[in-house]
Amino acid sequence: MSLAALAAALPVAAQASGGGEKTEKKKGGGLSYLQLPTLTATIMRPDGRRGVLTVETGIDIPNTDQRAKADLLVPRFRAGFVQALQIYASGLSPSTAPNAEFIARELQRETDRVLGGPGGKLLLGTILVN
Asked: What superkingdom does the record give (predicted)?
């Protein structure tokens, strides 16, 4: 099959498979859940080399107006979360495990600051030290 014939067949195949229609998929966590990109911060490992602290986060915002506002503020959430996490990680002793409660408290404080008040509940996923 020539390239021209293949290029002409692709749009037809996509339309036949339903590729032309937009269907809204339910995302993990429900419609009020805002999943944020994975956060990372640099830490010192016990052997003296640098390591990475990785934290998965999301925010549950039941209020639809506040949820729409939060969608636009994702870059601010990420910037504030990374800054808070990096400050925490820089003071973390190499042989100490991360304190999930402290991280959650700091990131919840940042969530409230960015939203302009309460209304969003921070949810932590995996906390990984590599």
From this structure: Bacteria
